Amino acid sequence: MTDSNPYNKELIEEVLDIYSSIRTGIEDRLREFSDVWENESEENLFSELAFCLLTPQSKAKMCWGSICTLKEKDALISGTEEEILDCLYGVRFKYKKAKYIVEVRELFKLDGKISVKKIIENGATPFEIREWLVKNVKGMGHKEASHFLRNIGKGRDLAILDRHILKNMKLIGIIDKIPDSMPPKKYLELEGILRQFSDEVGIPMDHLDIVLWYKETNEIFK
Question: According to CATH, what is the number of the domain 9-35+159-217?
């Protein structure tokens, strides 16, 4: 950074202090995400995908609670649309999202079984996988696809531009205003701007997302 940049220096110091205090926790959580890909079942990988489909305009904890209920009732992999709907407590637009889960479940089946790994692991980069997800998974934009890939240890250098992140980008002075809408071109533009800031302050992208989330919520979550 230079003295001529427009950033809010006090907020940057706060971000750096937060990062210093929770860095070990961030590294532990990112290792847990990597372990999901390496060690978890296909059902658990799919549960992360379904979780990210539920999160738009809904609270993450409520969405994860719904996923846990779906798994407890064996409805995530084999439940009907109505059975899925009954488990979506506190999830906004739950009728659409129940349909999305049913549809994406079929997309990720090979020989009648859920197979997340075989379908998305084909030597592609995280950016290429994300574009495939955005193109093929109904209800999944760049933010949700980035979130899913991060949660399974495949999202390094991707930004999850949710309201917490965008709010802090504006407060810090990384952007002048929060966009009214986020078409793909705008998402990729802002991701590039955040990546440059990440380089300038020395906080890796996958760490920075968690730091800014923690600044708003005081916790490290999914």
Answer: 1.10.1670.10
Catalytic residue among 162, 206, 215, 222: 162
Q: Contact at 8 Å (CB) between 70 and 87?
A: yes
Exactly one of 94, 97, 143, 222 is catalytic; name it: 143
Q: Is 162 a catalytic residue?
A: yes
The CATH code for residues 40-151 is 1.10.340.30
Domain ranges of the chain: 9-35+159-217, 40-151
pLDDT confidence band for 2 (50 / 70 / 90): very low
Helix (H) or strand (E) segment spanning residue 9: helix 9-39
* pLDDT, tens only, 137-152: 999 999 999 999 999 9
Per-residue pLDDT tens digits for 156-168: 889 999 888 999 9
Q: Phi/psi at 110 (nearest 5 deg)?
A: -130, 125
Assessment of whether the complete model's pTM goes beyond 0.85: yes
